[in-house]
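agent> fetching stored inputs for the flavin-adenine dinucleotide docking request
agent> found them:
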Amino acid sequence: MAGRESQFGATLPKADVPKKVCVVGAGPAGMEAARVAAERGHRVKLFEKTGELGGGQFRLATLAPFKEEFKNIVRYYKSQFKKLKNLEVVLNCEVDAETLRAEKPDAVILATGGAARVPEIKGIDRPNVYTNHDFLRQGVKVSGKVVIAGGGCAGVGTADLISDVSTADRLSDLGLKVTVVEMMEQCALDEELITRLTLLHRLQTKGNVELLNNYVVKEITDKGVVVIGPDKKETTLPADYVVLAFGAVPYHPLEEVARQFPNCQIIGDVVRPGKIKDAVEDGFFAGLRV
Ligand SMILES: Cc1cc2nc3c(=O)[nH]c(=O)nc-3n(C[C@H](O)[C@H](O)[C@H](O)COP(=O)(O)OP(=O)(O)OC[C@H]3O[C@@H](n4cnc5c(N)ncnc54)[C@H](O)[C@@H]3O)c2cc1C
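agent> prediction call returned; pasting tokens
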């Protein structure tokens, strides 16, 4: 772990008793947990419901042009997994209770990630409204005016601020007029400083992206997104499409079955939506604990 080499040394401690470990979800948390557990000598099976490593939220995070370097993370894990003969990756497998029971694992690590947060806002179920997860995953083709609603809601972490900007950036590259509505004083406040300044500067100079800070989304109507501005006045932002980027909530489809496996750890965004580094850290320690 970068910066903790003196604490953990160059090699990981071998497991006293090698176990059969099932890791569910190959996002950053699951991949790191699988790597560490396998390096320690456990027999590891890493299950992923999509057809690729990092195919969940992580893939969405890599789609913004300025976040392409994240793809190196998956390249790294692929190269590590090749060296670990006691680690098997199973893609296109959505794990349920039955799958886990059939595996008869000694230990289970659940790293199923997060889902888009959808707050209770009037009109949010209109057909032209997408979560940013769906929008990016489906590669929705949009035209005209797009409002990105999100950022700053209670309990939402860094990812939503970043994803607001990531999504807007992607849209503007398609030649659209994009307005980002942000409740905080500025967008992407929790982003690493240099990245944040570079990104905001790029968006502001593109000409077709407007960042509205200190605005709160009140309602979505057939005319657009009703917002309340810093002056407490209501305005309707015309919108052909609305993309919700209100961050993530835990996605925990195996919550019930987790109780059936005494040696079960739950890690990454399924515990608390955060950032990639948090998920990797969770994975590292889960791999050490198993
Ligand atoms: C649009 C967007 C932009 C983001 N930008 C950034 C950013 O710039 N920087 C940053 O640090 N973070 C960013 N994030 C957040 C980051 O992607 C997450 O914090 C991180 O991916 C969490 O890792 P995880 O392993 O916990 O979950 P995930 O990456 O979601 O991985 C969970 C995996 O579990 C799989 N899975 C779920 N259920 C099952 C099942 N039953 N069986 C098998 N597999 C299953 C999923 O397919 C998925 O691959 C962004 C997120 C989004 C959505």
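agent> quick read of the result: The pocket of flavin-adenine dinucleotide is lined by residues 24-30, 47-50, 55-58, 60-61, 67, 94-95, 111-114, 132-133, 136, 159, 162-163, 166, 253, 268-269, 274-276, 279 (CB under 6 Å).
agent> awaiting further instructions
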